[in-house]
Amino acid sequence: MRLRFILSETWTSLRRNVPMLLSVMLVTFISFLFIGASLLTQAQITKAKGDWYDKVEVVVWLCPDGTSQSPNCAAGTAATAQQINALQDVIQQELGDDVSSVTYESPEDFYNDSFLKQYPNGEFQGRTLTAADMQGSLWLKLKNPEKYKVVSEVLSGRDGVEEVVDQRQIFEPVFAVLNRATAATAMLAAVMVVVAVMLTGTTIRMSAASRSEETEIMRFVGASNWTIRLPFILEGAVAALLGSLLSCLALSALVKVFITDWLAKSVTWIPYVTQGTVLLISPVLIVGAVLLSVIASSVALNRYLKA
């Protein structure tokens, strides 16, 4: 009987306050849409880093045959076989715990396997280049990608080495932009959450104030404090639940339209978040929205429904 009464009171309150409840639902929807977008962006960064960082290598570019800005290549001649062997010995002796494999790529291999794929005619900046214009390189696969600085410090400045490059440097600017976007989204989401909490509290207070006579009568007949409060708390929780569900549906639609059906087909070399990622964060959004609503409603009711 008590449960039926509470549910009946909740339904009555929902019917009486449809405009305000729609406002709470809309603000909750927008707030948790931004929170979800922030979580998805961070998941995208984590996914991309995990995939790319496992694949990228440290490239030791050897001195080319010709001019170079590196002091190590002042002689203007390509790295000799003796210098290359010495570098491989250094890698094996000093970096054996950090480097899992070393691959030497000759100028001819680089020209045929990489350069011609990017420039089929061999033309670059108005010149037609050949294998003789390329330079050799050592490709190092690291056991721990974070140890790049150690490898760079050991190999930079040695004879025959023009430059040591970590391929992660290519992706860091992209990650920096995405991290800033995540931070901006998170800040906007935080503001919207505050607005949602305030609006929820205001709505519940107004609902309680409009039914103050009913709650007083309930007190006189011996209704417990929580029996009186619970319908109002459920009122806010229902609005928050609906708003959070809408935000999850919107995130799913955004991922499908802009990522699955567009970006994933246009740029195939990047691993993207999927509907599975949305499913993982959806419970967090729903539970978070309901909890915030319950807390805001409970605090707001203290003014009108003191024990």
Which tags fit this structure?
two-stranded antiparallel ribbon; 9 helices; Alpha-Beta Plaits; 2 domains; four-stranded antiparallel sheet; 6 strands; single chain; elongated; 68% helix; alpha+beta; 307 residues
Short synopsis of the structure:
The protein is of the alpha+beta class. The two termini are 22 Å apart.
Sequence-ordered SSE layout with sheet pairings:
Blueprint: H1 2-16, H2 18-55, E1 58-62, H3 81-94, E2 99-105, H4 107-118, E3 123-124, E4 127-128, E5 137-142, H5 148-155, E6 161-166, H6 168-210, H7 212-220, H8 225-266, H9 275-301
Antiparallel strand pairs: 1-5, 1-6, 2-5, 3-4
Question: Could you state the order of secondary-structure elements as H and E?
Answer: HHEHEHEEEHEHHHH
Total count of strands: 6
Categorize the overall geometry.
Answer: elongated
* SS summary, helix count: 9
Helix content: 55-70%
Largest sheet features: 4 strands, antiparallel
**Main sheet strand line-up:** 2-5-1-6
List the uncertain runs: none
Give me the secondary-structure category.
alpha+beta
Structure description:
This protein is of the alpha+beta class and 307 residues long. The protein has nine helices and six strands. It folds into two domains: 187 residues, no CATH class; 112 residues, Alpha-Beta Plaits, CATH 3.30.70.3040. The longest helix has 43 residues. It starts with a helix and ends in a 6-residue tail after the last helix. The model has no long low-confidence stretch (mean pLDDT 81). This is Cell division protein FtsX. Keywords: Cell cycle, Cell division, Cell membrane, Membrane, Transmembrane, Transmembrane helix. InterPro entries: ABC3_permease_C, FtsX, FtsX_actino, FtsX_ECD.
